[in-house]
Design a protein that fits this description.
The protein has 109 residues and is mostly helical. The chain has one domain. The protein has six helices and no strands. Helix 2 packs antiparallel against helix 4. The longest helix is centred in the last third of the chain and has 18 residues. It is globular, with a radius of gyration of 14 Å.
Length: 109
Amino acid sequence: MSDDDDQTRKDFDAAVNMTASELKKWLDTDDSKAVGQKKDGGESTGHESGRHIVRILEKKKADLTDDDLAHMRKVVGYVKRHSAQKPEGDITDTDWRYSLMNWGHDPKK
């Protein structure tokens, strides 16, 4: 793994604060499925991303593919951009929080 890949892993680990089991459980909820941009009424981009994140979290570092690393960089960027758009007030039951959770980041943690 290159130095860039190591940095990607560190950034991903900092951005994704949910475990694979927490994320799996979350992705099965109606709230998770209800948020995000959907292509043709199907699964949202964030929900699909969450399933990929679970697969990444369940892999050993040595087994990460180039596709995994590219997705990890995408996750880091999304979490950073979306976190900067935090709404005022209680975020507990907001689409903003639910979207971030689909990407493996719970801002309440």
